[in-house]
Design brief:
The chain is an all-alpha fold and 254 residues long. Helices cover 59% and strands 0% of the residues. The chain has a domain of 72 residues. This is EBP2 protein.
Length: 254
């Protein structure tokens, strides 16, 4: 220890502070973490936090040294034609800037992918719940149909449960109109098979049409009159003989 003190006394020079311009400060914390008592609040592996810690410490040192320089009447503003090269080259700073930008973009992509996974998971959950709800409704309706078929229930409420909103409104209006009409069984059959009812009856026979025989033709009725072209007639008379008959005709001609 005595040797260290001797070496220190040898290279120490008793100069004024304006000749040394040394400023010693402790770690300067980020305003958000000023209440933190831990000195290792800055992660040394995080390039951005480390660079920001150096920047804030240098800024605090400048703010501490400026009043002392002004008190000693030392000019602190550089002239307009003054040029000072930075400690780090522009190429090195550009590399740092690109690296920080790439890390920031990677974090944004990771966060976006995490949100997409969460949205897919939530959508799948909602879809599963909807399918399960439909299966439950279908099962309940089938049970209600079986009970109705076995005569254990006379309610047909399950018919209105499976309607879309637009169809439900129409069916609701129809049920309101037929409240005092047919019973539930008749309404169910009408919905299943149609309402039936009397048709137009334009082709039905009447007493007058049965007794009217003025348009009856006996020759046509018993195939004694001229036949229609579609069912014989000239085509039937000029029918070509078969192959064997034509061969016999050729042999006779020889």
């Amino acid at each position: 220890q005595s040797g260290l003190k001797q070496c220190l006394s040898e290279f120490r020079q008793p100069l004024d502070w304006v000749e040394r311009l040394d400023v010693t400060l402790g770690q300067t914390l980020v305003p958000a973490s000023q209440n933190a008592s831990n000195k290792d609040a800055v992660d040394p592996e995080n390039d951005f936090q480390r660079e920001m810690s150096f920047y804030r410490q240098a800024q605090a040192a400048v703010l501490d040294a400026l009043p002392r320089l002004r008190k000693l009447q030392v000019p602190t503003r550089r002239p307009d034609d003054y040029y000072a090269e930075m400690a780090k080259s522009d190429q090195q700073m550009q590399k740092i800037r690109l690296k920080l930008k790439s890390k920031k973009e990677a974090m944004e992509r990771s966060e976006k992918a995490k949100q997409l996974r969460a949205m897919r998971k939530y959508g799948k959950k909602v879809q599963t719940e909807i399918l399960q709800k439909r299966q439950r409704e279908k099962k309940n309706m089938l049970n209600a149909v079986k009970r109705y078929q076995k005569g254990l229930s006379d309610k047909l409420d399950f018919l209105d449960e499976d309607q879309t909103p637009s169809q439900g409104n129409k069916k609701g209006n129809a049920s309101q109109r037929t409240k005092k009409g047919p019973n539930a069984k008749r309404r169910y059959k009408n919905q299943k098979f149609g309402f039936g009812g009397k048709k137009r009856g334009s082709k039905w026979n009447t007493k007058e049409s049965v007794n009217d025989v003025s348009s009856f033709q006996s020759k046509v009725a018993h195939n004694k009159g001229p036949r229609k072209a579609g069912k014989g007639g000239k085509k039937a008379l000029n029918k070509r003989p078969g192959k064997r008959a034509r061969q016999k005709m050729k042999n006779r001609a020889r």
